[in-house]
Design brief:
The structure is a homodimer of 204-residue chains.
Chain A: H1 4-31, H2 34-41, H3 45-51, H4 55-79, H5 85-100, H6 106-118, H7 123-149, H8 158-178, H9 184-202
Chain A binds a DNA duplex (30 and 30 nucleotides) through helix 1 and helix 3.
Protein name (chains A, B): TetR/AcrR family transcriptional regulator
InterPro entries (chains A, B): Homeodomain-like_sf (IPR009057), HTH-type_TetR-like_transc_reg (IPR050109), HTH_TetR (IPR001647), Tet_transcr_reg_TetR-rel_C_sf (IPR036271)
Keywords (chains A, B): DNA-binding
Chain lengths: 204, 204
DNA sequence: CACAAAAACAGAATTGACTCAATTTTAGAA
DNA sequence: TTCTAAAATTGAGTCAATTCTGTTTTTGTG
């Protein structure tokens, strides 16, 4: 329990992630060479590959940290949602979007998304899919909450609606990170406009 | 006009695409080495890079062919849609999905999607975004058509609705190609279920 | 028909992610 | 403390995409 080996392992994990995060930000994903990450983390190239299957998995670990923070922040909204369907959705989605560029640059997001579709069975590919599912699930939880409060019709298919809202938001976010000039307020406004159709359909 | 050089160029383009398409199918995208494509097309490696910026652009050219066929097939549905909102959407989306695996394997789709987010400014990245936009536009055209016929309420925001439906379908399709076991009928059923919420909201 | 400039081609050299066999370190039994 | 097996580390080597620099082909002009 907490032997030398375990401590060293955790320490190396941390050093690799910190080195990679710094270099990804400075030089971009492609620009951050494994050799440089290894040097900065003070481990060898081989050790990095002992900890992560490939370069993408290193980025994946960083993305997971960010998305988990977002999920945590979202819980508050689900617990006490604004007393209006449109605002409730906008608030939750706002948290997702505003948090999203905290640690990750658009370029890092692009790479992460690309890797997750390119290698869906790699550790990160699976983790990413699971994160998407958690976000979908959180939106569904909000809808269920709104149904309980009596703001959303009880006969609405919450699961399908959660998927619809998440999928739309996610695709909009993908397009957003693909264009460097795209701005957060415009993204949120576009999503609000799309959701308005749904809100009209589901509000009591 | 149509000099030797232009003819040779077109011919080499064709040979490269044909060689690449065959090898991508046989060996997968990663498995198809540029050297092998060059050999099969009877050009040198350098020539391939003279015609395409990178390996992804070769795949991109093939994807564009497929999506353009799909767009063409969709025109018929927009011109004469089924006399029911749900069926109209299902028919158009059905055409997209059923065609999708005609020339391209799931693995090729994964790679193509990954490249388009990874390199949004490359020739293919831009072309792919434009294709997505065309599909969105076609769905919007269908909605407009249905509004004209009197099947969809006139006060519905057609542009936002088109985006919502396309984005949801596209994300479902991405998840579909990420899982090799996923089957087309299940995909279509899931999308129908999601769209049902919308249909209820917009049908006259 | 020459011939010079422009365009296209060829393939060797470069580059960078990833592998693997050899070496070092750790754990824990005697 | 000493020793051995297991675990972890190392970095030189491999492989394949992409680049680069000379060479060849085409074009159009005199």
């Amino acid at each position: 329990m907490s032997g030398l080996r375990a401590r060293q392992k955790a320490d190396r994990h941390r050093r690799i992630i910190e080195a990679a995060a710094a270099l990804f930000r400075e030089a971009g994903y492609e620009g951050a060479k494994i050799e440089a990450i290894a040097a900065q983390a003070e481990v060898s190239i081989g050790t990095i590959y002992n900890y992560y299957e490939n370069k993408g998995d290193i980025l994946g670990a960083i993305v997971s940290l960010e998305v988990n923070e977002v999920l945590n922040a979202g819980r508050g909204v689900v617990a006490r949602p604004p007393a209006n369907v449109g605002d409730a959705l906008d608030t939750l989605i706002g948290i997702y979007i505003e948090h999203s560029l905290h640690y990750l640059s658009k370029e890092m997001w692009r790479q992460a998304m690309a890797i997750s579709t390119q290698l869906p069975d790699s550790p990160f590919g699976q983790a990413y899919t699971a994160l998407d599912r958690s976000l979908t699930e959180q939106i569904r939880a909000l809808i269920t909450r709104l149904q309980e409060i009596g703001l959303v019709r009880r006969d609405i298919d919450g699961a399908a609606l959660g998927e619809l809202i998440f999928n739309n938001m996610n695709m909009m976010f993908i397009e957003f990170v693909k264009r460097d000039q795209a701005k957060i307020p415009e993204l949120r406004a576009a999503i609000r406009r799309q959701n308005r159709i749904l809100v009209a359909a589901i509000a009591v």
